[in-house]
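TICKET: design request
STATUS: open
ATTACHED STRUCTURE:
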């Protein structure tokens, strides 16, 4: 790849990473403001928690709508409409009179932000395929992974000189910036002749085709299940590090950020070795690392091991996510270029839906027990291997046997 193409890829990756970052910013920026919001609306913790759940549901379910719409109408138009909706809902959250309207607007805001997640992956598939797609997705992963690291701190910084309202004003301004980028900085990547024709009902039939594709479902489920392990990590480690091991909030922030760095390292490994090793070989290595590291986590928490052992094991698990994430997306979407939006939507929705299942489970034994966390995160890796064997390995084995018969 020459310098001009590299610069173009980096520019595109930066733009798409900005849209991918909208999800983490939408969810994480207001977390430090939850007590303020509860007091402002004279509400209770469960209603405030419902606003977080609403945004996550919007992010998950919105992708299932935005994906096929982008296959039908192109990438820019649905993205532009979604960004305008994001601006309205963000400023609306800052102005609502009661908690009920706030929850509704959080759902709308999450649904609008979902367009950035699903369409950014679809644009990557439009532009690249094969090894180049793997390398680009790896680059996108490295850049966009900065967002979950800085969004909570960004929210705290905003509330340090304003109220919680300032967070949603900031998000509204971010939506304006992304609307400008969509209008003047992002070219349409899906030509009219390659768009899915027909009505919305026909677009929905694409989901049926995807769900009946064993290989696609295998990679999408493995991706989603392992990201559910990431959600378990996010939900469990604040209590494990601070309540069980007694680390300070400052040290916890550093340890948490290190796992974001680990995902970047995994993505960089993929970018380096793609083209030298096949995507399937890289995928299997990542899957093996995931299983080994989560088994180490389980053994450590069962034996009440040290903080260092827990940190190293979770760091390696994060590296495996950085490896598996880009490769699984490439392998899942490689044969569904015309339905890239719908395929991307399924992958993204699995992540949020399965993450919503695992997150509450890590705390079922209380905030001073790490055993549920160890069991849940190991189970995600175990299930990922099971789905790989049942849905992917068997298909690849049958295909190899059939090719051998044809050649003899």
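STATUS: resolved
RESOLUTION: sequence designed for all positions
ATTACHED SEQUENCE:
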């Amino acid at each position: 790849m020459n310098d001009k193409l590299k610069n173009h890829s980096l520019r595109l990756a930066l733009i798409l990473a900005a849209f991918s970052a909208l999800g983490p910013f939408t969810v994480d920026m207001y977390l430090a403001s939850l007590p303020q919001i509860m007091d402002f609306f004279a509400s209770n913790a469960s209603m405030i928690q419902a606003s977080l759940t609403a945004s996550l549901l919007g992010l998950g379910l919105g992708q299932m709508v935005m994906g096929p719409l982008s296959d039908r109408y192109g990438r820019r138009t649905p993205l532009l409409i979604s960004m305008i909706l994001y601006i309205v809902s963000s400023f609306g959250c800052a102005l609502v009179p009661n908690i009920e309207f706030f929850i509704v607007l959080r759902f709308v805001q999450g649904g609008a932000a979902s367009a950035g997640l699903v369409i950014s992956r679809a644009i990557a598939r439009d532009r690249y395929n094969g090894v180049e797609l793997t390398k680009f997705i790896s680059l996108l992963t490295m850049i966009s992974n900065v967002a979950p690291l800085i969004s909570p701190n960004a929210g705290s910084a905003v509330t340090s000189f304003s109220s919680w309202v300032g967070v949603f004003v900031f998000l509204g301004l971010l939506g304006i910036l992304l609307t400008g980028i969509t209008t003047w900085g992002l070219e349409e990547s899906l030509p009219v002749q390659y768009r899915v024709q027909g009505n919305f009902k026909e677009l929905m039939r694409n989901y049926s085709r995807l769900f009946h594709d064993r290989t696609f479902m295998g990679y999408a489920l493995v991706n989603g299940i392992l990201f559910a392990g990431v959600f378990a990590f996010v939900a469990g480690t604040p209590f494990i590090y601070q309540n069980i091991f007694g680390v300070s909030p400052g040290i916890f922030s550093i340890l948490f950020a290190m796992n974001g760095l680990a995902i970047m390292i995994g993505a960089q490994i993929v970018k380096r070795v793609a083209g030298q090793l096949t995507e399937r070989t890289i995928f299997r290595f990542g899957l093996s690392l995931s299983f080994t590291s989560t088994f180490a986590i389980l053994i450590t928490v069962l034996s009440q091991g040290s903080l260092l052992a827990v940190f190293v094991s979770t760091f390696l698990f994060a590296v495996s996510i950085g490896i598996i994430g880009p490769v699984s997306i490439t392998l899942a979407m490689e044969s569904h270029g015309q339905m890239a939006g719908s395929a991307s939507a399924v992958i993204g929705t699995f992540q949020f839906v399965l993450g919503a299942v695992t997150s509450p489970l890590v705390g079922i034994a209380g905030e001073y027990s790490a055993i549920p966390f160890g069991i849940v995160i190991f189970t995600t890796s175990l299930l990922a291997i099971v789905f790989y064997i049942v849905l992917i390995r068997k298909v690849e084995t049958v295909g190899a046997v059939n090719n051998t018969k044809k050649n003899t």
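CLOSING REMARK: The chain has two domains: 1-188, 205-408. The domain at 205-408 is CATH 1.20.1250.20 (Growth Hormone; Chain: A;).
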